[in-house]
Every structure is written in structure tokens, then in C-alpha cells.
Specification:
- Its cofactor is Mg(2+).
- It catalyses: 3-deoxy-alpha-D-manno-2-octulosonate-8-phosphate + H2O = 3-deoxy-alpha-D-manno-oct-2-ulosonate + phosphate.
- Keywords: Hydrolase, Lipopolysaccharide biosynthesis, Magnesium, Metal-binding.
- Homotetramer.
- This protein is an alpha/beta fold.
- The protein has one domain: 3-Layer(aba) Sandwich (Rossmann fold), CATH 3.40.50.1000.
- Strands 5-4-1-6-7-8 form a six-stranded parallel sheet, sandwiched between helices. Strands 2-3 form a two-stranded antiparallel sheet.
- Helix 2 runs parallel beside helix 7.
């Protein structure tokens, strides 16, 4: 696999949730207790392993999402994701602040998104990535576009791309 200096620089991978880590659908159901509705999301299990591979390979992973959900907190906890920013309407400043808090420059950040709120962080990141089914403006602004749509392994595809093109894939596979 050919080394890519851009991939070698990436230390922090930040991702949107809805439309990237999920297909973008949000399901609500009524509770018979009258306490409100229950929200559900479906996450791709291969993305989960990809995130763990990234973290185990020494990378930092986080989510920056416009919506706030207890389900996202739970999934983050399961995967060991320590950076969870929810309810974010303007993502670019949060992405910059997150990088700064870790002592990283923006060229050491990859950002994965799918819709218009992701445009600015995709443009500012050292490696801006769009999922295959992202809106046109996001795909055109990205440095790279996954072949997988959101919720169908796009995060895993990006992690493998970064690890393979930075010479870290063999180490990531060593425990298997």
C-alpha cells in the first residue's frame, strides 16, 4: 500500500453521527406510560470495530453532532470514544477547539460528514471526507469520498484507508 503523507499526519478522526455512523433515519415510538417517545438509531457493527481499531492504533476518535441523544452517549461509551460533542449547531469552532485542546493542528484532523452543517469542518480539516450518499456540496468539498453510504461501513472504510496509507494497517491486524 502506497504511503500518503496526509494520512500519516492524521491523529484525530472526528465524525458526524446521523447520516454517517447511522443511515440518517431517526425512529420514534410512543411509550404507553405517557412519558414521551423513545428514539432509536441503528449503528453499523463494522464501523464500531473500525473505531476501536483506530483508537487501539493510537488515534483519537470523537463525534460532533447537531442532535443530542442518550443513545450516542451509550454507543460512545461502548466503543471507548471519549470525545462526544452533541447539540452542536456550528461544528467548525467545536472541531477547532477539540483539536487545540489535544495540542493538534487542523492538518492532523480528519472530519467525516454528510450534510451542509459538515461543510465548514470538512473544508478546514487536514483530510475532509464525505460519505458516498452525502449531499453534492459536501462531496464536492471533500478531499476523499467513501464508497459506502452513511450507516453502512463508511467510518470503517475511512479508518482502513487512513491505517493502510499510513503504514499502520499491519500493526492494527497483529492482534487478529
Amino acid at each position: 500500500m502506497q504511503h500518503d503523507p496526509t494520512c500519516e499526519r492524521i491523529k484525530l478522526l472526528l465524525s458526524d453521527v446521523d447520516g454517517v455512523m447511522t443511515s440518517g433515519g431517526v425512529t420514534y415510538s410512543d411509550r404507553s406510560t405517557g412519558a414521551g417517545s423513545i428514539e432509536s438509531k441503528t449503528f453499523n457493527i463494522k464501523d464500531g470495530l473500525g473505531i476501536r481499531l483506530w483508537i487501539e492504533s493510537g488515534g483519537k476518535f470523537g463525534v460532533v453532532t447537531g442532535r443530542a441523544s442518550a443513545i450516542v452517549e451509550r454507543r460512545a461509551e461502548e466503543l471507548g470514544i471519549e470525545i462526544v460533542r452533541q447539540g452542536v449547531s456550528d461544528k467548525a469552532p467545536v472541531v477547532r477547539e477539540t483539536a487545540e485542546s489535544l495540542g493538534l493542528a487542523m492538518d492532523e484532523v480528519a472530519y467525516l460528514g454528510d450534510d451542509l452543517p459538515d461543510l465548514a469542518p470538512i473544508r478546514e480539516a487536514g483530510f475532509g471526507v464525505a460519505v458516498a450518499d452525502a449531499v453534492d456540496e459536501v462531496r464536492r468539498s471533500a478531499d476523499w469520498v467513501t464508497t459506502a453510504p452513511g450507516g453502512a461501513g463508511a467510518v470503517r472504510e475511512l479508518v482502513e484507508h487512513l491505517l493502510k496509507h499510513s503504514g499502520r494497517w499491519g500493526d492494527a491486524l497483529a492482534k487478529y
